[in-house]
Each structure stands twice: as structure tokens, then as C-alpha cells.
Amino acid sequence: MKAIDSYNFKNKKVLVRVDFNVPLDDKFNVTDDTRIRAAIPTLKKILAGGGTLIIMSHLGRPKNLPEDKFSLRHIVAPLSKLLGVDVKFSKDCIGAATKAMCDTLKPGEVLLLENLRFHTEETKGSESFAKELASLGDVYVNDAFGTAHRAHASTTIIAQFFPHDKMFGYCMSAELESIDNLMTKAKKPFTAILGGAKVSGKIAIIENLMDKVDNLIIGGGMAYTFIKAVGGKVGSSLVEEDRIDTALQVIESAKKKNVKLYIPTDTIIADAFGNDANIKTCAINNIPDGWLGLDIGPETEKEFSKVIESSNAILWNGPMGVFEMSNFEHGTKVVAEAIVAATSKGAFSLVGGGDSVAAINKYNLADKVSYVSTGGGAMLEYIEGKELPGVKAIEEAVENIAK
Ligand code: AMP
To answer: Rounded to two decimals, what is the model's pTM?
Structure first.
């Protein structure tokens, strides 16, 4: 796992897959550079070791042809600033001109390639495309945890062309280590807090966590399916009718496995889905017709906080309510603060999955939890217990090197 620390990068052309899939405003300024900053330690290590950097990434979801709004040229300036090196840019990620640019690079120089997804072969996992990318460098480093769950050309297929010279970057290793630590060596009590919109997206995680956690807290939109499953009146709240049985199975399984399941007891309801709607607090199992629950209530906040603050290991995925709207963000904020309080008392806390990360950043608490995962979908699949193709492709190499 730590091969990057001992590898000799001197005079090597190092092809690094990063995740620079960052948000841009309408003037193409990067509005959140977390993912760029996350790759800097790996990039600096390679430069300090005397290597040349050839950086590959995707940005957004371009449909067919190259589109300027998805061009990685927008990343050149912020990356140059963060690295302290003038980053060069190649208008394509493959082809003769790109190859020629790579061939003339000297140690200490940095080239950023254009968006990989301007070629459909990237997401299709094309072997010939991966081979062409591979021809640009001598070493392959994967530091893009966010795409590790995809068997794309630059994340997985490419690794076979570097049987002895492939490794994880620091960001990728840290992500894997933090999740592995929590899933295999969590101190007790271990509490998982799951929220967000739907039960359907979280069921595989719930199943995998059931054998590991002491407490399972359910909040957000998915809570109303549980409440309906046990006979509550949920008004017009978000309910997945086809997941009511699933919710009942989770309740049963928690009982069998001695996991304490915490479901909200009160909720903030609104007469419409919007921040201008009328709101009130009510018991979560007695929501009037025409009203919908959009946040956890004060009694639930207290109970959840108590459980969280007495935990020694915490996993948080998914907001407790529609935290994007100020009237329904309180529960999410209180949960974030409880996690921070537990962390300050020594608990290990891992926050991950797009919206919980957005929430923890919104409240400026990201540096007060133990680890914030940058890889939404990849993190969820890893927690579900799935093997990530991008990780496997590198680990096979590690085994080869060991042989
Ligand atoms: P997910 O991507 O499944 O983690 O869901 C995140 C989304 O769930 C956020 O955009 C929240 O606004 C939304 N959400 C949380 N609580 C509720 C709720 N009670 N009703 C509807 N949407 C919710």
C-alpha cells in the first residue's frame, strides 16, 4: 500500500490518475478545490523524487464531443498555484501531439491531459484506449478514489500495462485505510448514521453494517418508510412503498443481531416542499394529510446526539433532512455537531457520501472530524463490502511485486 513512499521516481514519466471532477461556476472558476488539494501530496512526492508528472482526470459527464465547459484547461491555473509549478496542458489525452508533448517533458515538469471522457472509450473501459494512455508513461499511480468503483480505461484497465510499476497515491491509500479501519477495527460502541432520500440506495450498506455496528441511526427521507412500515401516519412524506418490507426486515434483523436501531420520534413538517412553506413540529407517526416531514424534530435531535456523543466510532452518510433549505437543516447540523463533539473526546469519525460531505463543509466542520471521504459512490460500494475494480487492479500489482 505504501509503495509510493519507497518507489524511485527519478527520471520516470509518471502517469497519475486523479479525480479533478470539481464544481465550476459560469466563469469556469473552481468553486470547491477539495479534490485538487487532495491529490497534491502525491503529485509533490513524485516531483520531489525527480519524476515528470502526466496527469489524467475526468470532469463532469460530457455527452458526445468535447465541450469547453468540461475542459480540464480550467484546472491549469488553480493546479499551477497549488503545486507551485507552471502546469502545461495537452488538448487531448491521446494521439500523436499528446505523445510528442509527453516525450519532451523533463523531470520536474507537469502536463495535464484533456478530459478523458471526451473519448467514449474511457467509460467503456476500452483496452486499446487504455494502452494508448499507458504508452505515455513509465509508471502508473492511481489517486482517484472517487472513480475506483468503475472499471474505466484510466482507472482499471490501464493497470495491466504496468505489471510492476503501479501503485496507489496517498489520497487513495488514506481513503482505503480509513474505511478499512472503521469496518474491521472500530472501537465500540460503533454508531452508523444513515440519512438521505431513499432506503433503496442504502439497503446494501445497512445489511453490511448490521454485523458491525452497535447503534444504527436512521434519519432523512428514508425514515418515513420505516415509520409507515410500523403503522405510522406519514402524510405526504417521501415513502418508498416497495421498500416497506425491506424496512421491516431491517427492524427484525437489528433485533436479532442486537443492534440498537434509532428511528426519529418527532419531525419538522411542512405544507409544501419549499423553504417558504408553513412548518410545525409533530410526532413522526402522526403527520397530518397534506403535510410532509422534511427534518428530524428536537426530541429526536436530543436522542441522536446522546447516542452519537457516547460513541467511539462513527460513520455518517446522508443528511437528516432537506438541509439545503434553512428551515430543514437544523437536524443535520445538530448531528454534525454531535459527531464533532464525539471526535473531540477521542472517537474516530468518518463522514462520506456526497451530501454529508456537502453538509459538513457547509457548517465548516470538515477539519473537526477524523476523516472526510472524497469518493461518494466508491465509498458507499466499499462499505457495502464490494471489491472496487480500481483497487483490485493495483493490488494485483502489489502481489506481483511481492513475488
Ligand atoms: P442521498 O443522495 O440519498 O444521500 O440523499 C440526499 C438528499 O436527501 C438531500 O438532497 C436531501 O435534501 C434529501 N432529503 C433528506 N431528507 C429528506 C426528506 N425528509 N424528504 C425529502 N428529501 C430528503
So the answer is: 0.87
